[in-house]
Predict the 3D structure of the following.
Amino acid sequence: MVEAWAIIEDGAVVDGRDADRLVPWWSFTKTVLAAAALVLVRDGLVGLDDPIEGKSYTLRHLLQHRSGLANYGGLRAYHEAVERGDDPWPVPELLTRLDAERLRYPAGEGWDYSNVGYLIVGQLIETMTGSDLNGALQRLVLAPLGIASARIARERADLEHVTMGSAEGYHPGWVYHGLLVGTVAEVALLLDRLLEGSLLTPELLQEMLTPFALPGPVPGRPWQNPRYGLGAMTGETTSGVKVGGHTGGGPGSTIAVYRDLGGAQPRTAAFFRTSNDEAKTEEGAFRLLKR
């Protein structure tokens, strides 16, 4: 098993192991998408609480998984196709298979993790910027935060030098909202710099970290009071640390990227493992946050 990690203090890597390893960021990509969307809000190009054209849900609903949209994670045919090594379905086929036009609950009246919601966020970012998703994220988030290695992987060849564990040959197109890959050190630096407040206004950063409370604790996971903000998992761990960040996982690996939100001297950590056990990966990241 490969384990790689990085600890950030005062804006710099202070400790780590194999921190320059290229890895998939999996659902930490949602944090970057949320940051990009909030930059558009900052610049007055879209409203956080304005309904998306022709829909009943808002950008806030999408970012907080409260839109009522379905999630393909529960679709058995999806997992079977991934395991066979198939090419991804075209987006219209995915949405048809999910009956995605049918909301599972009225927008704002429930919570259900939805990758489809973040697919729509990515499409909105592309429409508003007139750029493909990779170019938009580079301009809106990655370059302003000084992140050089990260990029959206689109084809199998884009993962050639990325540590994928048992998922060699995986097609990144199966992550419909986009799959960022980059180094372990830079994913930690990105979260550290984002939450330091250099990209977003204080008001928008507060919005990002203002959570919707979820039922907790989470069985088998190191969360005592789990919550979800705008593209950020927040709450208190079973060890009593107040954190913000995101966990991600896919075939062959998991990653957890978090910042201690309660310490006098903030510390940010990223922990990557070629294992599908998200709990162990989170435990590793939370352990790194302790002094």
